[in-house]
Amino acid sequence: xxxxxxxxxxxxxxxxxxxxxxxxxxxxxxxxxxxxxxxxxxxxxxxxxxxxxxxxxxxxxxxxxxxxxxxxxxxxxxxxxxxxxxxxxxxxxxxxxxxxxxxxxxxxxxxxxxxxxxxxxxxxxx
Length: 126
Prior knowledge:
The chain is an alpha/beta fold. The protein has one domain (2-125): 3-Layer(aba) Sandwich (Rossmann fold), CATH 3.40.50.1390. It is 50% helix and 22% strand. It has helices spanning 15-31, 53-63, 82-94, 104-125; strands spanning 2-11, 34-43, 69-72, 98-101. A 4-stranded parallel beta sheet has the order 2-1-3-4, sandwiched between helices. Helix 3 links the parallel strand 3 and strand 4.
C-alpha cells in the first residue's frame, strides 16, 4: 500500500455534504489501494489558501517526507487563485511529492501546466 495524504476543503456546514464528499475520496483511495491520511479544512471560500490550518499542517508533513503523493478531488479544492495553485504545485515538486486528482485528465493537464511552468521559471532565473 502506498502512503498518501488526502486534502479536502469544503464550504458550508452540512455534515451530510462533508460525509458524502469524504466517502467519495475514501472510495477512490481504497480502489487505488492507498494508505491515506485526510487533512480537512472547512473554508469560507476558495479564493485563497492562506489561513488554512490543516493545509499548513499537510505542507509541514510533506517537508518532513511523510508522503510521496497528495490526493485531491479536483484542483478547485485548492484555490481559485491560479498563482497559489502553481506555487503549491511547485512546492510539491521541490519536495518530491506528486499530486493526483480523482479526475485522471485533470491530473495530466496540471502535470503539463506544471512542466511548462518549471521550464519558464528556469528560463527566467538564467
